[in-house]
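I am writing to request your help with a piece of structural work I have in hand. What I wish to show you is a protein chain and, alongside it, a tokenised description of its three-dimensional fold. Could you please explain, in whatever detail you think fit, how the structure tokens follow from the sequence? You will find the record immediately after this paragraph.
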Amino acid sequence: MHIAMLSPIAWRTPPRHYGPWERVVSLLTEKLIDLGVNVTLFATADSETSAELRAVCPRAYEEDPSLEPKVWECLHISELFECAEEFDLIHNHFDFLPLTYSNLVNTPVLTTIHGFSSPKILPVYQKYDSQCYYVSISNADRSPHLSYQATIYHGIDLDDFTFNPQPGHDLLFFGRIHQDKGAREAIDIARIAQRKLILAGIIQDQHYFEKEIKPHLDGENVIYIGSVDPINRNELLGKSYALLHPINFNEPFGLSVVEAMASGTPVIAFTRGSMPELIKNGETGFLVTNVDEAAGVVEKVSSLRREDCRQEVENRFSDMRMARDYLEVYRQILKK
């Protein structure tokens, strides 16, 4: 079995800091190789992998402003599809655009839908629904207008997250600084609960940061530390009392939620999107509907067993489990 793995090129695979899709592609690729699968990874030229790497884009365009995204995306996708006959299956993690190439090749195309950026992209998925294969990353993120081969939850490398049975006192917000992710709500929750808050993540909306976040940064009670690399991420998650995840959108998955639990850190999240699928309310965190409810359960976090958070991730969200699930889907498709 020879799989062509198509990664995005917004960030390196694996990413140096931010890049959730690229991180999933990297973990999946490495574990498939461990399972004996022949994988060729199509990613940026500076990517790191045990697979054969094919690349036309020298670097991630989010890290190099001189690269025009659309130009390099076109070159990147075409690089794979022009040699599609070399592979038994193409696994697309590049959203909807590669689907428009699928009629031009005989190689089956499986697409992991990492979320719908807008309902406006749905017509592309609908057009190719009968000839391509789709995997959802949560049941909450499924469209009733599409057919799916499976739902496969993301997995993480448990070795990257050290279980910490003795947390600190501080709350943590770990994600994009954007209205969708609820950074401002996290500040309000921490203020009501009278706890220090650390915010970490890339600034995706500068206007939102300047208006809603920056005025509250005081260097003492609310601190923004920017994006963090994997080593600092591990330390930060493990020492936190709880992760605040007050999302304002129906999030398809939420890697930071699973990563926090792997460190033993419970999660307080708004009950939207995939959160009820990831968090066991009252066991690995709390599901709430607003800021006041979230602040009200902060003290209850101390009653949760951090060991249960870690065990839940080991049982349900390992990278090897993810790879085995995808391998089964590959086999189903190739049997057809």
About this structure: The chain has a mean pLDDT of 95. Residues 158-316 form a domain with the Rossmann fold fold (CATH 3.40.50.2000).
